[in-house]
Structure formats: C-alpha cells, structure tokens
C-alpha cells in the first residue's frame, strides 16, 4: 500500500521550500498534464511551462523563478528534476524482488549466504558463490560457481550471472540480463571456426544499474570491467574485455565491441555502435545512432547519425552520394585548370 506524506515532509526530504499549505498529504506523482488534485507534479523542462497554469496537481516542484507562476502549492528548489527523482524514491512502492529464502531455491552447501539475504523461487546458487548481506536474488536467477554478489544488490527475475563474475554493492540489475557469457572469440582455420575459451571474468563496481535483457560478456583473457556508478539501459551489448569508466551512462540498444576502453562520465546515446579496440576519453558524449569507428582523445559532443527525412528527399540525397566520386574528380580537374590559368596570367 502506498505511503502518504505531507508537502512539508517531502520538502525536507528533497531540500525544497514550501510555498502554500505544507499540511496537504500526497501519495503519488504525475505529470503536469495528467495530475489530479491529490498528486504532486514537477516542472523541469521549459517546454511544458504552459501546462503550469492549468495543472490540477495539489503541488508542483518548481525553480524559484517559476514559483510565482504556479497557481497551486509549490515546492521550490533549484533542480526540480532532482526533486522529482528524490520524491519518486520517497513514494516508491516497487516490491522486493525476493523475500526470505524460498523453499524451491537450490543453494549449494558451499555457497556463502550473508545476513538478511532474500532468494526467490527456483533460483540456483552454485558452489562457492557468495551473496553478501541484504542482497536480493529474484525468482529463477542463476548464480554461477564462485560468483560474488555485493551487499544490498538487487537482482530481478531470470538473471544469469556466470561463474566467477563479481558484482559490487548497491547495484540493481533488471530481468533477463546475462552477465559473464562467453565473448565472441573464434579462430578461423581450414574453413572452420574454432571456439576460443573465454578465460576472463566480468567485474562490476558499486552502485551500477543495468537494464533488462542486456548482455555483458566475460573477458577473453583479461576482465570485462564496469566502473562504479555506471547506468546501462535495456538491450545493450557489451563485448569481451570492454572497460567502462565510472559514472558513464549508456542508452538502449547500444553495441560496444570488444576491447573498447570508455572513460569516466561519458554519455552514449541509444543505438550507438562503437568499434572494437579503440579508446574513448573522459566526458565524451555520443548522440543517438552514432557510429564510432575511431578513438576519441578529447572530451566533447560527437554525432554521426542522419535524422529521418521524407523518402523523396532521402532518395535525392542518396542519388547525389553515388555521384560524389565523379564530382570530386571534376572539382580536382577544374582546380588544376584554374591554377594553370592563374599561373599563365
């Protein structure tokens, strides 16, 4: 059942100042456009500013310069989006992924299970695995031999954590993710592919969040490493021997090829593709659908995806692209002729 808090309680929790009646109780969040008179909303993007005057929310989290325009109660702070995040945490009623240790869980006698660990139905904990205090292992999860799960880490259902994988504390991993599967390593010989055993591990730091159906491959020889504080979206592929620095964010459907090194505090947009064996500096941003084929040595924003356009325009552009080589040769010839004429004059 959802908890309710007064606006004064919420203001203290998020570091805001109350404008209006602080005794009003709320138990849920909504957008400005959809909020009812028992819900709290927020304004973090100026393009929704016109919704402020008509919102039915009982209170809105706003910046100081927008407080006077708010026709209802307000929680005033410099960063309303962070206020929204903190309020959402306060009002969160997401259930635990597991409670207690279910009778159908299969736990090897040599596994080490900490205090307050919860393990869901039909989960399998193999020999030598270690589950630290307060961790939650959801239903149907597989924790391989000698894998380590840190304190207070939460795994949702049907996650596979292969042998010797190490996951830090306070992590959150969504359903159906696979960590530590074999990397794509094969040697061609006499017309056949010969599998190369993947002998490395996956090492994941603290406070890492990984979305649903994402795959993190184990290293071929050295380890695949994900640094502290990283956030990785759904359906991301991280290949063997990739090293990702602290606090880097990777959006959905991105593919990171083998042996890539990504710096700290990078942001990688959705559906980006990063070529193998390159290095990305700290504080780099790749916008969505970027194709990264070479290393990046300097921080900054990089793009390569082509936005959608009417098919007729695309066909015209594509036709011209096919003529680029001919056009380039003509330009070179014209430049040569022009230079010769200038010399003669």
TrEMBL record:
One Pfam family per UniProt: Hexapep
Domain UDP-3-O-[3-hydroxymyristoyl] glucosamine N-acyltransferase non-repeat region: 24-90
Active site, per annotation: 240
Statement: the UniProt record of this protein carries the keyword Transferase: yes
Catalytic activity of the protein: a UDP-3-O-[(3R)-3-hydroxyacyl]-alpha-D-glucosamine + a (3R)-hydroxyacyl-[ACP] = a UDP-2-N,3-O-bis[(3R)-3-hydroxyacyl]-alpha-D-glucosamine + holo-[ACP] + H(+)
One MF annotation (Gene Ontology) recorded for this entry: UDP-3-O-[(3R)-3-hydroxyacyl]-glucosamine N-acyltransferase activity
HAMAP family: LpxD
Similarity comment: family membership: Belongs to the transferase hexapeptide repeat family. LpxD subfamily.
Name recorded for this polypeptide: UDP-3-O-acylglucosamine N-acyltransferase
Lineage of the species this protein comes from: Bacteria, Pseudomonadati, Pseudomonadota, Gammaproteobacteria, Alteromonadales
């Amino acid at each position: 059942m959802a908890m309710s808090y007064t606006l004064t309680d919420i203001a203290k929790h998020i570091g805001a100042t109350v404008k209006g009646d602080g005794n009003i109780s709320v138990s849920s969040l909504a957008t400005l456009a959809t909020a009812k008179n028992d819900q709290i909303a927020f304004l973090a993007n100026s393009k929704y500013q016109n919704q402020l005057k008509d919102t039915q929310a009982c209170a809105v989290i706003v910046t100081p310069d927008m407080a006077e325009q708010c026709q209802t109660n307000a929680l005033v702070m410099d960063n309303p989006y962070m206020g929204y995040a903190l309020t959402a945490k306060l009002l969160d009623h997401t259930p635990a992924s597991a409670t207690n240790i279910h009778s159908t869980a299969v736990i090897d006698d040599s596994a080490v299970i900490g205090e307050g660990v919860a393990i869901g139905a039909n989960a399998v904990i193999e020999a030598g695995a270690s589950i630290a205090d307060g961790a939650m292992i959801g239903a149907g999860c597989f924790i391989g031999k000698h894998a380590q799960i840190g304190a207070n880490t939460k795994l949702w259902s049907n996650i596979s954590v292969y042998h010797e994988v190490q996951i830090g504390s306070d992590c959150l991993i969504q359903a159906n993710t696979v960590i530590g599967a074999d990397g794509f390593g094969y040697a061609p010989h006499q017309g056949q592919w010969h599998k190369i055993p993947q002998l490395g591990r996956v090492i994941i730091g603290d406070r890492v969040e990984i979305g649903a159906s994402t795959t993190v491959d184990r290293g071929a020889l050295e380890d695949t490493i994900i640094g502290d504080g990283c956030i990785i979206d759904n359906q991301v592929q991280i290949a063997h021997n990739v090293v990702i620095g602290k606090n880097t964010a990777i959006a959905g459907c991105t593919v990171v090829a083998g042996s890539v090194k990504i710096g700290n505090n990078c942001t990688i947009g959705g559906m980006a593709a990063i070529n193998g064996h390159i290095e990305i500096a700290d504080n780099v941003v790749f916008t969505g659908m970027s194709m990264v084929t070479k290393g990046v040595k300097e921080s900054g924003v990089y793009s390569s995806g082509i936005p959608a356009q009417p098919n007729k325009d695309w066909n015209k552009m594509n036709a011209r692209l096919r003529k680029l080589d001919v056009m380039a040769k003509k330009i070179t010839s014209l430049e040569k002729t022009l230079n010769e004429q200038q010399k003669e004059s």
